[in-house]
Amino acid sequence: MFMRNVGLFAVLSIFTLALAAAGGCGSSGPEAQFTANPTAGEAPLSVWFADLSTGDIDTWEWDFDSDGVVDSTQPNTLHIYEEAGTYAVSLTVSGPGGTDVQVMEAFIVVAPNPCRADFVADFTSCHGPCPIEFTDLSTGDVVKWEWDLNGDGLIDRVDQNPIYPYSQDGIYSITLTITTSDGCTDTLTIDNYISISGCST
Predict the structure, then answer these.
(1) What is the pairing mode between strands 170-180 and 142-148?
(2) Mean of the per-residue pLDDT values of the chain
(3) b/e sequence 113-135, b meaning 16+ C-beta within 10 Å
(4) Which CATH number fits domain 119-197: 2.60.120.20, 3.90.1150.10, 3.40.50.300, 2.60.40.10?
(5) Which of 1, 35, 70, 97 is most buried, by the most CB atoms less than 10 A from its CB?
(6) What 3-state class would DSSP assign to 195?
(7) Residue 168: is it exposed, middle or buried by C-beta count within 10 angstroms (0-12/13-18/19+)?
(8) Which residues of the chain does CATH 2.60.40.10 include?
C-alpha cells in the first residue's frame, strides 16, 4: 500500500510540474478585448476606445483603420475619423504570458457629412497692405457663410467669396462657418494661414 501511494504521489508531482511549465509559472496570458463608443456617425467622427483585455498586460497597440500602422499605444484612447468609410479595428496586447490580438471587422461606420466647410485663399502671404480673396469650397446646399478673417472671433464677412484688405502686419487664423438649407452647420479654422508683413515700414 505504501509503495502504491508513493508511485501515485510521483505521478501527481510530475503532472503538477508539467501544468506549471505550460502555464508560464503562474503568469496569466493576455486576452485582447475592447469596446468603442460610438461605432457609427457622420464624419468627422470622434470615437472613444476602451480596453477590456484580461491577463497581465505590458503593452497595447491599436490599429484604427487596418492599415498595419500602430495608431496608439494607450490602453484607452480617442480617435477621430475624418473620412467616410467602414473601418476594421484591431488591438494587440502583450505581456509576460504572450501576445493576443482582437480584430473587429467593419466595426466603425463613418457616413459622409452632409455639409463640410472648406476654403482656399488666392495667396497666403503678402508684403505691404494688400487685399486677399477667399474662395469657398464647401460642400452641401450652403445658404449662409460666416467668415472671421483676422482671428479675433468676430464675423467680418457674410458673402460666399469675400475679399479682405489686410493693412497690419501679423499672422492671421481664418475661420469659416457654413449653414445649409437643411440646417447642417460646419466650421473650419486654419490656424496661422495668412502672413502679412511690411505694412508698418
Answers:
(1) antiparallel
(2) 87
(3) bebbbebebeeeebeeeeebebe
(4) 2.60.40.10
(5) 97
(6) strand
(7) exposed
(8) 28-111, 119-197
Buried b (16+ CB within 10 A) or exposed e, 12-25: eeeeeeeeeeeeee
- Say whether pLDDT at 40 is over 70: yes
| DSSP summary character for residue 168 | S
Per-residue cell: 62: 491599436
Residue type at position 36: A
CA–CA distance, 16 with 11 (Å, rounded to integer): 9
Beta strands in 96-150 (DSSP E): 98-111, 119-121, 125-127, 130-136, 142-148
pLDDT in tens, 55-71: 999 999 999 999 999 99
Interval 102-160: pLDDT, tens: 999 999 999 988 899 999 999 999 987 899 999 999 999 999 999 999 999 999 999 99
Q: Give, in order, the Cα–Cα distances in Å from 93 to each of 9, 28, 33, 81.
A: 39, 12, 9, 23
Is 2.60.40.10 the CATH number for 28-111? yes
- The total of other beta-carbon atoms located within 10 Å of residue 96's CB is 15
Whether residue 178 is predicted with pLDDT greater than 80 in this model: the reply is yes
